Fold this sequence. Notes:
Shape of chain A: elongated
Radius of gyration of chain A: 28 Å
Distance between the termini of chain A: 63 Å
Low-confidence stretches of chain A: none
Oligomer: homodimer
Strand order of the largest sheet of chain A: 3-2-1-6-4-7-5
Order of helices and strands of chain A: EHEHHEHEEHEHEHEHHH
Mean pLDDT of chain A: 93
Number of strands of chain A: 8
Amino acid sequence: xxxxxxxxxxxxxxxxxxxxxxxxxxxxxxxxxxxxxxxxxxxxxxxxxxxxxxxxxxxxxxxxxxxxxxxxxxxxxxxxxxxxxxxxxxxxxxxxxxxxxxxxxxxxxxxxxxxxxxxxxxxxxxxxxxxxxxxxxxxxxxxxxxxxxxxxxxxxxxxxxxxxxxxxxxxxxxxxxxxxxxxxxxxxxxxxxxxxxxxxxxxxxxxxxxxxxxxxxxxxxxxxxxxxxxxxxxxxxxxx
Amino acid sequence: xxxxxxxxxxxxxxxxxxxxxxxxxxxxxxxxxxxxxxxxxxxxxxxxxxxxxxxxxxxxxxxxxxxxxxxxxxxxxxxxxxxxxxxxxxxxxxxxxxxxxxxxxxxxxxxxxxxxxxxxxxxxxxxxxxxxxxxxxxxxxxxxxxxxxxxxxxxxxxxxxxxxxxxxxxxxxxxxxxxxxxxxxxxxxxxxxxxxxxxxxxxxxxxxxxxxxxxxxxxxxxxxxxxxxxxxxxxxxxxx
Lengths: 240, 240
C-alpha cells in the first residue's frame, strides 16, 4: 500500500531482533526497513538468519548514521515509547497511529521508529517526531521485546489498510452444503421414533421438552447434508 | 481478567520461542501457559532466559503429554492455523476470537492453541477445537514466527478486555497549560508589527492573506502559554 510506513530501528543492539522485525514486517506486507547505527555493524548474520524468507527486507534495509538522514523523505514521524516523556506531544495508540497515517493520505510518507532494546528512544530522537505511539501493555510487565513491538505495529497497519478484504468470521464449506431444515427435521423424526421404542422418555410429560432440547443441540451444529446422513446411520447402527 | 484464555503450545521445538511467548503473554497480562511435549524437554534454559522478567510464567507453565489432558478444564478451544483445513469449522480473525471468548462470559474457560514451528497443528489437534483462528497476514510471506503469533493474539486479548481504560489518543500536559486564544492573538500581533517594520510584506494586497497563513501555522501547534512567551522572545531577539 502507498500508505505503508517505513520502520526505523534506532541503534538496535541484537541481530536476532532486527531479523525478527524484518520477518514480521514482510508477514504484514511492509518492506521499507531503515536502521540507524546497529551496534554489531552491518550486515549481521544473526539478523539474516532470523529473517527466514524475509531476507529481502534485510538485504534492502538502509543503514544510516543518524535519524535526520534516515528521515530525509519522511513527512510524518511517530516515536514508539512506553515511558512517559516530559514533552508535550500527542500520544496515540497503535491503532490510532495507523489511522493517522491513513488519514494523511498517500502523498504523505510516514515512518514509525523504535528505540534500542535496553532503554528505548532518546529525548532527542523523540523531539523530531510528530507524535508518540504507545502500545497498551499490562502494568505488571510493560517491557515488550523490540521485534514484538514491531509485530504489533505492523499487524495494526495490515488490518487497518486491508479492512475491505478481512472477514471477522467465516465458515468454509468447500463442496459441502448445509442441510436444509427439512433434512434436520427428518433426522429428529428418525431419532424420536427410535427413542419412542425404548424407555428413554420415561415420563410422558417431559417428552416434548426433551425433544426440543435434543433438537436444539443439532440446530446449533451447522450440520451438512452429508453429516445428516452419517447421523441417520449412527442412530440405525445403535438401534441394532 | 476472568476471561483471559490459556495459551497452549503444542509440541513447540525452539526454547527461545517458548520464552518469547511467555514474555509477551505477561506483557498483555496473561499467565496460564500450557505446553504439550516440548521437543527439547522441560525445564528449558533457553526458554527461561528469553522470558526475561516473565520467568514466573515459565516456572508456572504446565507440561502435558497430550492435548486432551491439557484441556481438562477448557470449555472453548481455539486453534490457530494459517493453512486452509478441509474441516467444516468456523474461522475467526484474532479480534473476533477474543470477542467470542468475551461473549461466552466468565463462567467459560477458554484456550488458544498454537502448533509447532515447522508445520503447525495436526488435523487431530484441530478436530478438538470449537473454531479456527487465523491471523490475517500478507500473501507474500504468510509464515509468522510462533512467538509473534502469540503476541498478536495476546495483544488483541488485552485491548479488547481493557477497552474502557484505553484511550486512542491523548496529549499529556502535566503542569503546563495551553495558551488561550488571546495569548495567541497577542503573539500574532507582536509578529505582525515587527514584520510591518521590515519589507517582509512586499505587496500590500497579500498582507492579510499572509498573516492568515502564519496565524494558521501557530493555531495548529497547540502552543502552551510558556511556549507563547518563548516565541515572543524569539521574535524580539531576531529583531535586534
